[in-house]
C-alpha cells in the first residue's frame, strides 16, 4: 500500500466516491503529564467516529492515520483486524455500503516537531502545553480521517485533560467540563460548520487567558456577538499585551464585515500564542494559533508590532478565504494564501494605525516573491501540485507574495469595487464548499465585465518575473520627446505580461529633496510601450517605473536615473518611492548587475536617513546577506570593517531610546569584528559601557552574546551564566544557539551529530542548533561537513518528518563554502540521485541556485 504521501489522483478518486457527513473525535491527553514510558513514544488515546457515504457500494477506499498503534477498527458494525487493515499510514476500507460508519481507536504520538499534537514542557515552571498544527496533512497524526481539503464535514471534539487545564477547539464549548473517570475533566465542543481536516484544532494546557468580545449590528441580520480570547503560556503572561491584539482584532472584524458583506461564520474567535511553532500562524476557524515570538519579551521596533498586526489580519481574512471557501486541492492553494497576503496589507492600511503596510509589502514581501520566482523551482501562482510533499514546499514566496502582488495589480486592472463585489459573490455562492480558479474567474467576469481568461493565463498560469526599464529621449530643450517602457523576461520564463503601471518623473528641488512632478498611469504590454502622456515634460533626474507599486515586476533604471540614486537615494521624500528604489537596487545586486560593495556603499550613505523602520531593518538584513555571500572574498574583511564603523556611527547618532537606535544596535552586533567593536559589546553586556538611551534588555543581551560566542570571547561558562539569568524557553533556545556557535571543531561535530545523527531535539532546538552551527566567520570549521551533508540528506529525508527534513536540508547546505567545488559537488549529487524524492531534489536545486547566484555576484564585485 502507498506510504505517507498522498497523490492528487488518489485524492481525486476518493472524493469521487466518498462524501463525509460528520466526525466525532475524542482525545484523552491526560498522558501529557507525568513520566513517559521509556519503551516507546509518549502517546494519547484517540477515538474517531466517521459517518460517510459512498456513491459506489461495494467499492474500496482508505482512511488516513499516522499512529504507533491501533487498538480497534470497526466498519459498519464489523470488527476488523487492525494488523490486517492498518499499515502505519492508512486504514484499508473494503466492501463499503451506501452509508458507512467507521470507528477507530488508536494510540497516537505526541509531537516534538510541531506537526500533529505538539507537546511542550516549560523549563521555567515545568508546566506542559499542547497544541495542534496540521497543514497540509497532519490531522491524521491525531485522529483517523480522510485527509484532503475537499472532503469537508462538521466536527465534534471531546477532550479529556488534566484538571485545571484550559481546553479549546474550533467550536464553542458545549457546557461545563465534567469530571472524568481516573481524574481530570472532559470538555465537549459544539459541532463545527463543514470544514476541512487541516484547519481543525485543539489547544490544551494551563494557558493564561485574556477575554474580550466584539459586537456588530447588521440591518438585515441583527446583532452579531463574537466572544474573543487571547492565550499564552503562564510564564509569558507578564509580557502579554492582549489589549493591542484585541484592538487589531476588532479593527479587522469591522473592516472585513464592511468589505465582505458576509458575517464572520465561526462563532467565537480565540487566538492562542503557542511555543515551538513552525509557522507564523494558522487560520484554524475559531481557534487561530500563532508563534509565541509575537509576544515580545523585550523592546522591539514598530516594525515588529506592524508585522504582528499584519499576521493577525492575514489569518482573520482566511476565515473567509480558505475556511468558509476552500480550494479543492493544493493546486489552488493561492486561492487562500495570495488573498490573505493581499488582505493583510489592504486591511492594515485601511483599518489600523499601521498605515505603512504597502511600503512593507513592497520592500519585504515582494523581495521574498522575486527570489522564489527566479529559482529553478519557480511555478505559476496556480501550481501543479502532484502530492502532499509538493504542497508542503509550495507555501512559498510565489503562492503568498507574488500572488498578493498579482491581486494588487488585478485591483488596479478591474477596479477595487469590482474586485470586492466579486469576493462577496464568491463567498455567498460557495460558502462551506470547495473551489478552483474557474470559480473565482467567473465572478470576476461578472463584476468587472472584462475577459479574465487572457489575464489569468499571463498572471496566474505562467511563471517568472518581468523587468521594466525606461528608455528616454530628450530634445535640445531638455524636454522628454519619447519615453518608452521596455519589458524583458528571462529566457527560461519568456512570458511578457500586461501590466498596469504608473511611471513617475522626479527632480531635485531647491531644498535638495527628490520630488515627483509628473505621473502617468497606463497599460504596458509587449516588449515596448510608449508613455505618450509624459512627452513634453522637463528632463527628470529620476524615472521610476512602477511608481506606487501597482504591478509585480523588477524595476530597472536608465543610466541617468541610476546615477541620481547613487548620489541622492536618501533625498527621495516619498517613503514608498524610496522603498521601491531600495528594492530595485537590491535586485540589481542579486542579479550581479551592481557590485555588492556599491550596494553596501548606498546603505552606509543613506540608510541612516531612512525614516521607515521596517525598510531600515530590511536594509540591514540585505547588507548582511551581501557581505556574507556577494562581496568578493578578498574584500570581505574590509567591507565588514566599513559596515561595522558605519553601524556604530549611526547607533551613536540615533535618537536615544528609539526603534532606529535599537535596529542599529542589533545590526552593529551582527557585523562587529574588530577588537574595539567586540570590547564595546563586552562592556555593554557587563554594564561598564553605555550608549545613551540604549536599554540592553535580555533579548539584546543574547544578541550581543551570540556575536561574542562566535568570535571565541564567551565560553560555556559565560553562556551558562546568561541562561541562569534567563531560565526560560527562549533562554534555552538562545543558549543552544550560542553553544553551537563556538569556534571549535569539537563543538561543530557535536552540533552536527545532534541534528543529523539524532532526533532527540525538538523542532525549535533543531533550528537553534543549525543557526549556531553556520557562522559566516567560521567557513574553515564547517568546510569538512560539505561532503557528509550530501551523503546524509537522502537517508535523513526518508527518516525524519518533512518539517525537520526541510529545516536540515536547507539549513546545513554548505552555502558558506562558496566555491566552484561546492557547486560541482551539488551537481554531482543531483546527477547521482535523479530518483530521489522530488521535494528533496527541489530543496537542493534551490540551494544550488542560491550558491550559483552568490558566485556570479562575487565575480561582479571583483570586477568593480
DSSP summary: helix tally: 28
Name the shape in a single word: globular
Uncertain runs with pLDDT below 50, 5 residues or more?
Answer: none
Cα gyration radius (Å): 28 Å
Overall SS class: alpha+beta
Helix content: 40-55%
Report the β-strand fraction as a percent range: 15-25%
Number of strands: 28
Largest sheet: 8 strands, mixed
Write out the strand line-up for the largest beta sheet, numbering strands in chain order.
5-4-7-2-1-10-13-12
Task: Give a brief description.
This protein has 864 residues and is α+β, with helices and mostly antiparallel strands. Helix content is 42%, strand content 20%.
Main traits of this protein?
864 residues; single chain; 42% helix; alpha+beta; five-stranded mixed sheet
Amino acid at each position: 500500500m502507498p506510504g505517507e504521501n498522498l497523490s492528487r489522483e488518489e485524492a481525486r478518486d476518493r472524493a469521487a466516491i466518498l462524501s463525509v457527513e460528520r466526525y466525532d473525535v475524542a482525545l484523552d491527553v491526560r498522558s501529557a503529564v507525568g513520566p513517559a514510558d521509556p519503551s516507546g513514544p509518549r502517546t494519547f488515546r484517540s477515538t474517531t467516529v466517521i459517518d460517510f457515504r459512498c456513491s459506489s457500494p461495494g467499492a474500496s477506499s482508505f482512511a488516513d492515520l499516522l499512529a504507533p498503534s491501533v487498538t480497534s477498527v470497526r466498519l459498519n458494525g464489523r470488527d476488523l483486524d487492525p494488523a490486517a487493515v492498518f499499515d502505519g499510514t492508512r486504514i484499508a476500507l473494503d466492501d463499503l455500503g451506501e452509508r458507512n460508519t467507521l470507528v477507530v481507536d488508536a494510540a497516537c504520538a505526541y509531537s516534538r516537531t510541531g506537526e500533529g499534537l505538539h507537546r511542550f514542557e516549560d523549563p521555567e515552571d515545568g508546566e506542559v502545553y499542547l497544541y495542534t498544527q496540521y497543514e497540509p496533512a497532519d490531522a491524521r497524526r491525531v485522529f483517523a480521517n480522510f485527509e484532503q481539503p475537499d472532503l469537508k464535514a462538521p466536527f465534534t471534539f471531546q477532550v479529556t485533560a488534566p484538571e485545571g487545564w484550559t481546553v479549546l477547539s474550533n467550536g464553542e464549548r458545549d457546557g461545563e467540563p465534567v469530571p472524568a473517570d481516573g481524574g481530570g475533566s472532559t470538555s465537549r465542543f459544539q459541532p463545527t460548520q463543514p470544514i476541512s481536516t487541516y484547519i481543525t484544532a485543539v489547544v490544551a494546557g494551563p494557558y493564561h487567558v485574556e477575554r474580550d468580545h466584539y459586537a456588530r449590528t447588521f440591518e438585515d441580520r441583527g446583532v452579531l456577538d463574537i466572544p474573543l480570547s487571547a492565550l499564552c503560556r503562564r510564564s509569558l503572561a507578564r509580557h502579554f499585551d492582549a489589549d493591542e491584539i484585541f484592538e487589531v482584532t476588532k479593527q479587522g472584524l469591522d473592516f472585513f464585515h464592511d468589505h465582505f458583506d458576509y458575517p464572520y461564520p465561526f462563532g467565537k474567535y480565540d487566538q492562542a500564542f503557542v511555543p515551538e511553532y513552525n509557522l507564523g500562524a494558522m487560520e484554524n476557524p475559531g481557534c487561530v494559533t500563532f508563534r509565541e515570538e509575537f509576544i515580545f519579551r523585550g523592546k522591539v521596533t514598530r516594525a515588529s508590532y506592524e508585522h504582528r498586526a499584519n499576521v493577525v489580519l492575514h489569518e482573520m481574512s482566511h476565515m473567509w478565504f480558505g475556511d468558509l471557501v476552500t480550494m479543492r486541492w493544493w493546486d489552488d492553494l493561492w486561492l487562500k494564501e495570495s488573498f490573505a497576503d493581499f488582505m493583510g496589507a489592504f486591511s492594515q492600511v485601511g483599518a489600523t494605525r499601521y498605515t505603512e503596510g504597502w511600503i512593507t509589502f513592497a520592500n519585504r514581501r515582494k523581495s521574498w516573491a522575486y527570489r522564489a520566482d527566479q529559482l529553478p523551482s519557480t511555478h505559476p501562482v496556480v501550481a501543479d501540485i502532484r502530492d502532499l510533499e509538493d504542497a508542503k514546499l509550495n507555501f512559498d514566496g510565489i503562492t503568498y507574495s507574488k500572488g498578493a502582488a498579482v491581486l494588487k495589480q488585478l485591483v488596479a486592472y478591474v477596479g477595487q469595487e469590482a474586485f470586492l463585489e466579486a469576493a462577496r459573490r464568491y463567498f455567498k455562492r460557495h460558502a462551506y464548499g470547495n473551489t478552483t480558479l474557474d470559480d473565482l474567474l467567473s465572478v470576476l467576469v461578472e463584476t468587472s465585465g472584462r475577459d479574465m481568461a487572457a489575464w489569468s493565463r499571463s498572471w496566474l498560469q505562467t511563471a517568472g518575473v518581468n523587468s521594466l526599464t525606461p528608455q528616454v529621449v530628450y530634445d535640445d530643450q531638455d524636454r522628454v520627446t519619447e519615453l518608452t517602457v521596455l519589458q524583458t523576461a528571462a529566457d527560461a520564463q519568456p512570458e511578457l505580461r500586461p501590466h498596469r503601471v504608473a511611471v513617475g518623473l522626479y527632480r531635485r528641488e531647491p531644498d535638495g529633496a527628490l520630488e515627483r512632478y509628473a505621473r502617468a498611469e497606463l497599460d504596458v504590454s509587449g516588449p515596448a510601450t510608449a508613455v505618450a502622456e509624459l512627452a513634453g515634460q522637463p528632463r527628470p533626474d529620476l524615472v521610476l517605473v512602477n511608481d506606487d507599486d501597482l504591478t509585480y515586476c523588477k524595476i530597472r533604471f536608465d543610466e541617468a536615473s541610476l546615477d541620481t540614486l547613487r548620489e541622492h537615494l536618501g533625498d527621495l521624500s516619498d517613503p514608498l518611492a524610496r522603498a521601491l528604489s531600495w528594492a530595485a537596487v537590491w535586485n540589481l545586486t542579486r542579479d550581479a548587475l551592481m557590485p555588492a560593495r556599491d550596494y553596501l556603499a548606498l546603505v552606509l550613505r543613506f540608510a541612516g536617513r531612512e525614516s521607515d523602520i521596517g525598510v531600515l531593518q530590511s536594509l540591514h538584513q540585505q547588507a548582511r546577506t551581501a557581505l556574507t555571500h556577494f562581496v568578493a572574498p578578498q574584500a570581505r574583511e574590509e567591507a565588514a570593517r566599513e559596515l561595522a564603523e558605519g553601524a556604530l556611527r549611526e547607533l551613536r547618532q540615533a535618537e536615544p531610546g528609539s526603534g532606529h537606535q535599537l535596529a542599529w544596535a542589533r545590526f552593529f552586533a551582527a557585523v562587529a569584528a574588530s577588537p574595539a567593536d567586540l570590547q564595546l559589546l563586552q562592556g555593554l553586556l557587563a554594564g561598564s559601557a553605555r550608549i545613551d538611551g540604549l536599554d540592553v534588555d535580555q533579548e539584546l543581551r543574547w544578541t550581543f552574546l551570540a556575536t561574542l560566542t562566535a568570535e571565541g570571547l564567551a565560553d560555556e561558562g559565560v553562556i551558562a551564566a546568561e541562561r541562569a539569568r534567563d531560565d526560560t524557553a527562549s533562554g534555552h533556545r538562545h543558549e543552544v544557539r550560542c553553544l553551537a556557535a563556538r569556534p571549535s571543531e569539537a563543538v561543530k561535530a557535536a552540533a552536527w551529530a545532534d541534528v543529523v545523527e539524532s532526533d532527540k531535539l525538538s523542532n525549535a532546538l533543531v533550528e537553534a542548533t543549525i543557526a549556531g552551527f553556520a557562522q559566516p566567520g567560521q567557513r574553515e570549521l564547517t568546510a569538512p561537513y560539505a561532503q557528509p551533508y550530501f551523503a546524509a540528506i537522502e537517508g535523513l529525508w526518508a527518516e525524519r518528518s518533512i518539517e525537520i527534513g526541510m529545516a536540515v536540508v536547507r539549513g546545513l547546505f554548505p552555502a558558506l563554502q562558496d566555491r566552484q567545488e561546492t557547486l560541482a559537488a551539488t551537481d554531482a549529487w543531483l546527477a547521482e540521485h535523479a530518483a530521489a524524492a522530488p521535494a528533496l531534489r527541489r530543496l537542493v536545486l534551490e540551494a544550488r541556485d542560491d550558491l550559483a547566484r552568490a558566485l556570479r555576484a562575487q565575480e561582479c564585485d571583483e570586477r568593480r
